[in-house]
Amino acid sequence: MALMLPAVSLNHAPTRQFSNPWGIPLLVLSIVGAILLMAWLQQLNAERQRLNTDMQRIQQPASAPALTGKENQAKQQEIAAVKDAMNELALPWQKLFTALENIQGTNIRLTAIEPNARLRKLRITANTDDVMHMFGYVRSLAAQPIFNDVLLMSHEYHNDQPMPVHFIVEAVWIQQ
After folding, report:
1. Secondary structure (H, E, C), 114-125
2. At 58, phi and psi to the nearest 5?
C-alpha cells in the first residue's frame, strides 16, 4: 500500500488587498513631470537649432546678387576707383610737400606733381635753365629722408623757352 501525500497548493500573491493612498497620485505626477520635461527639452533643442542657424548665417559672408559680366566689370572698376581715391587721401601729403620745399635751388620750377599711391611713387615734372641745376635738384631730392629711390626718367632741351631744360623725376617715398 502506497502512502499518498496530501496535495499542496502554493499561492505567492498576498492575500489581502494592499493599497497605498499616495501611489496613484505619485504615478500620475511622475508621468506629467516626464511629459513636461520632454516638452522643455524639445523646446531647448529647437532654440539651439535656431541659434546654430543664425550663427552660421552671420559667419558666412553675405552673398552679393548675381551680376552680369558688364555689371560685374563696372562694379570692379568702381571699387578700384574708390580704393585709389582712398589711397590718395591717405598719402603723406604734408611730409611730401615739406620735403619738396626743403630742397635748395631757386632755378627749378615744378610744373606737375603726380602721386601713385599704389606704388608709393611721386612723379615730378619740372623746368630749369641749366642742366647742372637739374642734376643738383635730383641729388637734393635723393638726399631727403622721405625718399628712397630717386630716378631721372627723362629730360629735353628746348632752345626757344626761357627755361629750356624740361625733365621728369620719379621718387619712391618710404612708408612711415
Report:
1. EEECCCCEEEEE
2. -70, -40
Cα dihedral 12→17→21→22 (10° resolution): 10
Tell how strand 121-128 and strand 108-116 pair up: antiparallel
Q: Phi, psi (5° rounding) for residue 84?
A: -60, -45
Q: Go through 27-57 and write b for each residue having 16 or more CB atoms within 10 A of its CB, e for each that does not.
A: eeeeeeeeeeeeeeeeeeeeeeeeeeeeeee
| Greatest C-alpha distance within the chain | 163
pTM: 0.52
Nine cell digits for residue 81: 576707383
Q: How far apart are the first and last CA of the chain?
A: 127
In this predicted structure, what is the pLDDT of residue 40? 96
- CA 86 to centroid of chain Cα atoms: 16
Percent of the chain whose predicted confidence (pLDDT) is above 90: 36
3-state secondary structure of 15: coil
- Say which residue the cell 601713385 belongs to: 116
